[in-house]
Write a structure and sequence with these properties.
This protein is an alpha/beta fold. The chain has two domains: 254 residues, TIM Barrel (Alpha-Beta Barrel); 76 residues, Orthogonal Bundle (Arc Repressor Mutant, subunit A), CATH 1.10.10.10. The protein is 41% helix and 23% strand. The protein has 16 helices and 17 strands. The strands form four sheets. A nine-stranded mixed sheet has the order 9-10-8-7-6-5-4-1-11, with helices on both faces. It has a three-stranded antiparallel sheet with strand order 12-13-14, with no helix packed on it. A three-stranded antiparallel sheet has the order 15-17-16. The longest helix has 18 residues. The protein starts with a strand and ends with a helix. The structure holds iron/sulfur cluster (SF4).
């Protein structure tokens, strides 16, 4: 599998908890930014050696990709199709924010080739949305989801957040029930992280807001695990649930399986078989670099500010750390051996002994042989498992 990630670092306003690479008030750079993305896509199509030309997944992430005109998204998808080739059933996802998504845009996105929408609802309680500094209210979120369905989207994912200051277990349950009533195909549930430098972090530090306790946050997570499985969802990754295997997020599975992807845009990262590249986070510098590409730079990553080559052992550690997040399939011993020439137990004998003894993981039989997967206890204490492979 090979994926392309396009970073769209524009937002109407910064949410109070956000530490992503994104900017408000820089919309005037959008046309130049789209041209720069096209340049980077074309440049890498010529220069990437040893990677499949065909792209299995495309992901427009941000920021707020739904701020872009539908025509721009279509131009970028056409560029990927002509420069790389798109697999027949390629997943093309776009992150959208309620408040920027109407029926006209959803129809345009579908026509452009986008076949999966990931909608950042975060909460169906307006008080939570105000506290988080979101640009939309709950009814706009519901309208966006209806618009996407009416336009013909058959794969809709909703993002929800738990552990929001002031949120109760009953409030969280009501959020999940409202989400389920809208019949999403996929749900991503994230615990609110208070990141230093954000307004929410400062509000909690100053005592203006009370953070949710770790115990309550854990109860919210367990409640989601039980309720969603009861409603027929498959819990296939620590933070992700789908209405069956066909709706698992294929692009994100490339990350969790530690496979290759190219990231383009300001703030994008690439992972190309052991080579890690981080692009500049500055929109202006990115546009400037892309408008000044000349032949001498061919083969380089013109917008990179950091490149790192990983040694084989670090690659194996990362493959375990990321792959163990996949709660349904875990890490296949056969795939690991085919890729690295050693079985998991040969590379990590002590680590395996410890987590098996603590019943945090188990071997489960799949058609291609045993897979190492988290137990329920391991899901709840996931970090202790991942840390074994750091
Ligand atoms: S919409 Fe998303 S990327 Fe933009 S500021 Fe809010 S959380 Fe950050």
């Amino acid at each position: 599998m090979f994926g392309i990630y396009l970073h769209i670092p524009f937002c109407l306003r910064r949410c109070k908890y956000c530490d992503f690479i994104t900017y408000a008030g820089k919309e005037k750079f959008m046309p130049g930014y789209i041209a720069a993305l096209m340049t980077e896509l074309r440049h890498q199509a010529k220069n990437l050696q040893g990677f499949p030309r065909q792209v299995d997944t495309v992901f427009f992430g941000g920021g707020t990709p739904s701020l872009m005109k539908g025509g721009w998204i279509e131009t970028l998808i056409d560029c990927i199709r002509s420069e790389y080739g798109l697999a027949k059933h390629a997943e093309i996802s776009l992150e959208a924010n309620p408040g920027t998504l109407d029926q006209k845009l959803t129809a345009k996105l579908l026509k452009a080739g986008v076949n999966r929408l990931s909608i950042g609802v975060q909460s169906f309680a307006d008080c939570d949305l105000v506290l988080l500094g979101r640009i939309h209210n709950s009814s706009q979120a519901v309208e966006s989801i209806h618009s996407a369905r009416q336009a013909g989207f058959k794969n809709i994912s909703l993002d929800l957040m738990f552990g929001i200051p002031g949120q109760s277990l009953a409030g969280w349950k009501s959020n999940l029930q409202q989400a389920l009533a809208l019949q999403p195909d996929h749900l991503s549930l994230y615990s609110l992280i208070l990141e230093p430098g954000t307004q929410l972090f400062d509000d909690v530090q100053s005592g203006k807001l009370q953070p949710v306790s770790e115990d309550l946050s854990a109860d919210m997570y367990e409640l989601a695990m039980d309720l969603l499985v009861e409603k027929g969802f498959s819990h296939y990754e620590i933070s992700n649930w789908s209405r069956g295997k066909d709706y698992e997020a294929q692009h994100n599975k490339i990350y969790w399986k530690n496979q290759a992807y190219l990231g383009v845009g300001a703030g994008a990262h690439s992972s190309l078989n052991g080579l890690r590249i981080a692009n500049t986070s500055s929109i202006e510098y990115y546009i400037n670099r892309m408008s000044n590409i000349h032949s001498a730079e061919k083969g380089n990553f013109p917008a990179a500010v950091e490149t790192l080559t990983l040694d084989p052992y670090t690659m194996q550690q990362e493959t375990m750390m990321l792959g163990m997040r996949l709660t349904r399939e875990g890490v296949s011993d056969q795939e690991f051996t085919d890729r690295f020439g050693n079985r998991i137990v040969d590379v990590f004998p002590k680590e395996l002994e410890r987590i098996l003894a603590r019943k945090l993981v188990q071997w489960r039989t799949f058609p291609d042989g045993p897979h190492l997967v988290l137990t329920r206890g391991g899901i709840l204490l996931g970090n202790q498992v991942f840390q074994e492979f750091v």
